[in-house]
Structures are given as structure tokens and as C-alpha cells.
Design brief:
With 323 residues, the chain is an alpha/beta fold. 40% of the residues lie in helices and 16% in strands. The chain is globular and about 55 Å long.
Length: 323
């Protein structure tokens, strides 16, 4: 079978490519403009003749159509990501994320291909109905341009469901919750590698806001396996699934865990969002998924706790020479 991964040179996409290629004779086609993805993420796969990388964007309609025609299953991961990039250019987020998704869905519907679309926990906005359910409320205000990422993902989901209902496109929507693991970098606001690198450099570990906000962190290997299993599940098309961990942790607790693991002597310092992004940002206080739906459909269960995840990331950063 042939697979297409948009954004396949990124953190999650490169892990997904490795998982698919490990399974046998399948071929994997990747389209990535390398705006945040990196060829180095695919270095371990570079000599595999079954991997085909096209350095271009998902808004290149002719290329996208050709690749969709070649592949039976499409994993759509390409998007503008990271708090910093979203805050700096919200209009580009809307254009790239929505237009690219529309082109891909149109091509997939034309050729009858299955699509697994990766959305985000950001679509729940300011909802405090924790744990967050797929059919739960989405709560927003217009106070910050950083919401543009969430809005783009909501529209992506809307388009996917319209293509499913009106054209019979077999599309699965997944909402990912703070995916972390080896290979992730802190360049675009990703909190765990940033904390570890700050601690390894002697500190301080910088916590935005008061640090009482909670998140759940999910090991990338678990997420990738869930994406693969959903792509093969007959019950999944037309449905939305949370993928994440049910174990919340405050950012203060996370910073303390990193300090104890990497360098107990470093300082933990709190600064307001405005100092970082130059504008107001409405941060979500608590974001934890309800994963009962995906558990019932494919038996999903996270395999690594936050302590195990931190250890894996620390060892990867040491091995790669980034700390």
C-alpha cells in the first residue's frame, strides 16, 4: 500500500513515516515545505528506497493531486504550528491551514482515498468542561490573534465532515493533545524540550503566566499508533476522536520535574505572555481529554507516563548534541 503524509518531515510526521515503513513493503510519500519540518527528522530513513520526499507546500495543487492519486491512504498533518509562529502571522495560519486542507480533501474525494486528518485540542477554546469530549462545547472570544490556529482547525474539521456527508469521503478526524517525544524541538514554543534545554544550559526555566494551568502530554509513539489503527478501522470514517493522555499536570509541576531530572540547582522563573509574544494571549487553564471514545473503538491506551516521556526526551537531546 502507498501512504501520503503531508507535513511528513515534521516531528509527528517523521515518526509516522518510520512506523509505516517498519511494517513491510509499503511506500511512503511525503510532501513538506520544510517551514518547520526538517530533513534531519527523516535521516534514519534516508537510505530507504520506499521513502519519497517532495519539498513543496500542500497548496501546490498539481503536485498534491498527483500524490493523492498514487496513494490509498492520506495522513494530513501539514499546518502552521507553534505558538510563536501563530502569534506572529495569524493570516498565514488561516490561509495555509484551510486552503491546503480544502485542496487535499477535494483530491481525495476525486480519487476515493481515505484521509486521516489531524486537528487539535485547541478547537475546544476556553471550554472548562474538563475532561473535554468530542461532542462538548467550544468556547472562544476575539481577544487574541493566536486563536487563528484554533479557528483554522475548526474549519478544517467542518470541511472534512462536509466532504464525508456529501461526497462519501472516508475521512477520520483526530484531535491531538500536546504530543511530545524524541525529535521535538523547543524552537516554536514546545514546552518540554524548551524546559529541558533551559535547565541543561543552567537556567532559568521560564514558565509563562503563573504556571497553574494544566495540560496532558502524550507520547508520540502512542499517537502514531493510534493514527495508523484509525486509518484501518471501518468504524472510524466520519467520526472525531480525541488522542491524548488522561493524566493532567500543571506547568509548575512540569517545570519542577524537569528541574529535578536535569539540574536541581536551576531557578524557575515566571513571566507574563506579553513579554514573550508582544501581545495579549488568552491561555487555557485546563486541557485534558476524555478518551473513552477512542478506547472503545480501537482500544487506545497511552503507554508512557510523563516521567517516562521526560526521560526519553532528555536522552534524545543528549544523543543529538542539543544539550
Amino acid at each position: 500500500m502507498n501512504y501520503l503524509i503531508t507535513g511528513g518531515a515534521g516531528f509527528i510526521g517523521s515518526h509516522l513515516a518510520a512506523r509505516l515503513l517498519s511494517a513491510g513493503d509499503d511506500e511512503v510519500f511525503i510532501v513538506d515545505d520544510l517551514s518547520t519540518g526538517k530533513k534531519e527528522n527523516l535521516q534514519s530513513l534516508a537510505d530507504d528506497p520506499r521513502l519519497h520526499l517532495f519539498v513543496d507546500g500542500v497548496t501546490e495543487e498539481n503536485l498534491l493531486s498527483d500524490l493523492v492519486e498514487k496513494c490509498e491512504v492520506i495522513f494530513h498533518l501539514a499546518a502552521v504550528v507553534g505558538v510563536k509562529l501563530v502569534a506572529e502571522n495569524p493570516l498565514n495560519v488561516l490561509k495555509t491551514n484551510i486552503y491546503g486542507t480544502e485542496l487535499l480533501l477535494s483530491s481525495a474525494a476525486r480519487f476515493g482515498r481515505k484521509v486521516v486528518l489531524t486537528s487539535s485540542s485547541e478547537v475546544y477554546g476556553k471550554s472548562d468542561a474538563v475532561p473535554l469530549r468530542e461532542d462538548g462545547p467550544m468556547v472562544f472570544d476575539m481577544s487574541s490573534a493566536t486563536w487563528s490556529y484554533a479557528f483554522s482547525k475548526i474549519i478544517d474539521e467542518f470541511l472534512a465532515l462536509k466532504f464525508h456527508r456529501e461526497k462519501g469521503l472516508p475521512v477520520v478526524i483526530t484531535r491531538l493533545f500536546n504530543v511530545v517525544g524524541p525529535g521535538q524541538v523547543g524552537d516554536y514554543g514546545m514546552v518540554i524540550p524548551r524546559f529541558i534545554q533551559q535547565a541543561a544550559a543552567g537556567g532559568p526555566i521560564i514558565v509563562y503566566d503563573d504556571g497553574s494551568q494544566t495540560r496532558s502530554f502524550t507520547y508520540v509513539g502512542d499517537v502514531v499508533e493510534a493514527l495508523v489503527q484509525l486509518s484501518r478501522c471501518d468504524e472510524a470514517p466520519g467520526e472525531i476522536f480525541n488522542i491524548g493522555s488522561e493524566e493532567p499536570i500543571s506547568i509548575n509541576e512540569l517545570a519542577e520535574k524537569v528541574r529535578r531530572l536535569v539540574n536541581p540547582e536551576v531557578e524557575i522563573k515566571h513571566i507574563p505572555f506579553e513579554e514573550v509574544y508582544g501581545q495579549s494571549k488568552t491561555d487555557i487553564r485546563h486541557r485534558v481529554p476524555d478518551i473513552s471514545k477512542i478506547k472503545s473503538v480501537i482500544g487506545f491506551k497511552p503507554t508512557l507516563s510523563i516521567d517516562g516521556i521526560l526521560e526519553k526526551i532528555l536522552q534524545d537531546l543528549k544523543k543529538s548534541g542539543r544539550i
